[in-house]
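Hello,

I think I submitted the zinc ion job twice by accident. Can you confirm which output corresponds to this input? Input:
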Amino acid sequence: MSAKIIQAPGKYIQGAGILSSVATYIKHLNAKFLVLGDAFVLGLTQDILSASFERENIACRFSTFTGECSRNAIATIQADAEKNQCTAIIGIGGGKTIDAAKAVSYYLGLPLVIIPTIASTDAPCSSWSVLYTDNGEFDTYLDLPFNPTLVLVDTQIIANAPARLLAAGIGDALATWFEARACRQSASSTMAGGLPTVAALSIAKQCYETLLTDAKIALLAVERNVVTDAVERIVEANTYLSGVGFESGGLAAAHAIHNGFTVLEETHSMYHGEKVAFGTLTQLILENAPTEELETVLRLCIDVGLPVTLEQLNVTGNVESKMRKVAAQACLPGDTIHNMPFNVTEEKVYAALLAADSYGSSFIKA
Ligand SMILES: [Zn+2]
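Support: Only one job matched these inputs. Its output is below.
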């Protein structure tokens, strides 16, 4: 019998305005930090971080992340960290900066602090890093032997970011329960390398429940750049519940279908979570989920502005041949679509993609 495994970051800290106290939470690491962020994020946060570090006499080097989370970009950052004798890595920013920081800390064997400035994916808490090619196509998952040492989320910074990013995070979080449920049914190994624990499945289920109760209100609050209790709950759902839920609950069709969409150039401007949301609808069609459940998920997507049609994903023209490509990519051997509790073929995925598109369209027109 396989082991049951749950894994999570060592510590998770969330609150409005906590970035200005960052040094008090990391000083025990006793390190020189390489702080990786893109130019935009460092422009917003570098002064706040520097002031906090100075108060605690913490040494750091700021490194500007440019471009893709690719093998080439990671090698460059790694060389910079080594040259400057950094002994811990901080990744501050969005999904790709975080993934790059994780990869660098892994290759150098250093403690890792993640400070997401948006809640658009569930990457921050996990031990997984997604690598892309220099052209932005999915390359591979990098399986790190550890989760971040600490994840720190300033909810005011999240609320200052565009609401579409929070919606994308809701899309990513939306898949968590359905993928975990599929993995449980098929007794598949999760991303943590074992069967899910009671805690992992409860977290995945609670993630979905939280979205149903708080997503719409939270999105409206973030459109006005304010933090309410609903925003706090959705940020935790998008970041922690979804992060631990997917990793120790397992991935299935929704994320594989996301990976399929990355072969279409026109979807590169869409966020990960937006493609995952459509992947979730497609998974529900694929498994012939109860109509009531399908409708609930679809209405949640529409409420928060997540795409429910191919056109909303920027896919127009030659839709049939494009969906054949998406289905072929999603069904590659080794992708998580094969964790579904039945045999999945390209033909079935192609059919589910077109049916999901029609189902979404029928609600928009209604
Ligand atoms: Zn995801």
